[in-house]
Amino acid sequence: MRQVLNDSLQEKQFHQDGFITLKLLDVHQLDQLQQTINELNQSHIDQSIEENSSYKLSYFNGDLEFKQKVFNTLSDFFQPTINQHLKNYKPLIINIFDKEPGKGEVTIHQNWTFVNEEKYTSVSVWIPLVDVSRNNGTLETVKGSHKVLCKYRSPSLPWVFDEINDILKEKYLEPFVIKKGEAAIIDDGILHWSSDNYSEHVRTAVQLIMIPEDATAIHYVNKGDHVDIYEVDPLFFMQYDMKNIPEGYNIIGEMELSLKKMNEKEFVDIVAQNDPTILEKYESKSKEQAPKKKIGFLEKVFGS
Predict the structure, then answer these.
(1) Strand residue runs (E) in the chain
(2) What are φ and ψ of residue 99, in 5° steps?
(3) What is the value of pTM for the model shown?
(4) Residues 172-210: pLDDT tens digits?
């Protein structure tokens, strides 16, 4: 498997847990980032293509010029810093993500498959602009759930774990509690979720989905009896509305469609291959959890 992180200790932890957290931005960079995001948000009229969403995601904006500006501006801002940590990675999708008070749950999901995961690892770099915890809808993950669940994922494919979503929230999902200026780098295959923002302030975060520079970006499309594999690029995702495939992209392969729903025991057993401590959670009672609202929206979206 191709190297992900420059630091060998971080690399080991990332492959074991499916994520790491680290200090990414200093005070000056944070101020500059906030100013940049403010300027980007003021440069367009909100044209959301997902009116039922309880959160604001730049990906949902119907203004292609605005999304291209977000991608170029934030790519230029982050790439030098990201290069200090990731081994020759480039951005594929860049999102500005706002959760207003009382809103913003993102249902349990894995991110889409963006590369051939037999050879490469795509990652999401998640950078909150405020201190985050479960109170304001931080990112929550199941440690060790990467690389062992479904390896081909897209909005046209069903989840294998959606019959145990409530159990996952009650017992297995654990929140990132990180400070402003810190970031989480997650394997896009890890199971994750984020709750509503229960605070009185907007929770803003930036998400950079990144792939190795030498990897081909791909996207899976469910054709009923098989899955077509498309070769794509950043423009594909800027144009993609999750209902229609943009024209002009080539099919480079296909694979058999074979997915089986998991119960709790099956889920625990497979994750235990990476994280044996999950067996203790399986035997324990449900942990105390913040209130949960089921919004049932975009269960296959990549956002967090």
Answers:
(1) 19-23, 56-57, 89-99, 106-109, 123-128, 139-141, 174-175, 182-187, 192-194, 203-212, 218-222, 226-231, 251-256
(2) -115, 115
(3) 0.90
(4) 999 999 999 999 999 999 999 999 999 999 999 999 999
